[in-house]
Automatic annotation (TrEMBL):
InterPro entries: AKR2_Oxidoreductase (IPR053135), NAD(P)_OxRdtase_dom_sf (IPR036812), NADP_OxRdtase_dom (IPR023210)
Domain NADP-dependent oxidoreductase: 7-199
This protein's name: NADP-dependent oxidoreductase domain-containing protein
Lineage: Bacteria, Bacillati, Bacillota, Bacilli, Bacillales
Signal sequence, renumbered to the chain: none
Amino acid sequence: MSKESKLGLGGHSFIEELGNDPHASFEEQCAIVADCLDNCIALIDTTYYQERVALGHVLKRLGRRDEAKIMAWNFFKQPGREHELVDYTPYEPQHIDLMLEELQTDAIDLLVIHAHDDTAKLLKELVLTQDWVQAGKVKRVALGMARLGHLRQLPAAHPVSAVLAPYNAFHPDAKELFETARSLGMDAIALSPFVRGWKLDEIGADKDAAAAILLRWVAAEPLVDHVVVSMRKAEWVHANLRAVGEGPLTEAEDAQLREWLAR
Ligand SMILES: NC(=O)c1ccc[n+]([C@@H]2O[C@H](COP(=O)([O-])OP(=O)(O)OC[C@H]3O[C@@H](n4cnc5c(N)ncnc54)[C@H](OP(=O)(O)O)[C@@H]3O)[C@@H](O)[C@H]2O)c1
């Protein structure tokens, strides 16, 4: 069987907000997810509740739930704000069943706790998510938007086996977090290799070439286990896979990237 790709599909692929490109139609979303699964991209993120609902429908239509590794964060539907992207809410006992229903599944492969600085509350979330692991509703637990301090505050026994943070050539600060996480046996999952889609326009170079250079900068980093990218077009799945397959940047590409960073 082929090895799982380092590339993961971002949840913002399923929503209109946060992107330049228009909303991908349901048919396009099905094509994107099918292309990912066909090409060993198993890790699929869902951040906002709207993304969970969308992915649930797509995987049901495709009949391929078992091939995907679903990641899900604690951003929930709020009464009167169903059409907005609302902030995260620390986990409470009722949340897991809501998430499973939205995703139309029995278990979440990687449940993400959005990190924050209320240590007592975070400890409660760790206990709760551990309970969900024991109940078979969650396979693994991760800390998202984590900083080094959050890792240092983890109790001796905890369920966290991965950390997630934005990590790209413009914002490489998560490197130390990833080094520490890896030294503790955790996976390091990088988010947003392009910052956002608009950053590629701002660079002003050929967009495909700029995307490939920024993605390769992250994907070739041995510390990174996965890099999660939103892709609202099926053709980008193939472009991004090709880029990841090309490996580290050449000297000329690295010089080009430095020029963009220095602006
Ligand atoms: N950044 C965070 O704070 C954060 C937090 C929680 C979770 N995440 C997760 O991380 C994922 C990725 O983050 P992100 O969407 O913020 O940033 P990103 O993946 O760096 O940027 C995605 C955008 O890049 C463009 N794109 C993708 N492939 C391309 C290609 N081959 N050529 C040209 N343009 C391409 C698209 O832009 P347009 O569609 O805009 O044109 C796409 O929306 C999210 O979907 C989410 O699952 C991020």
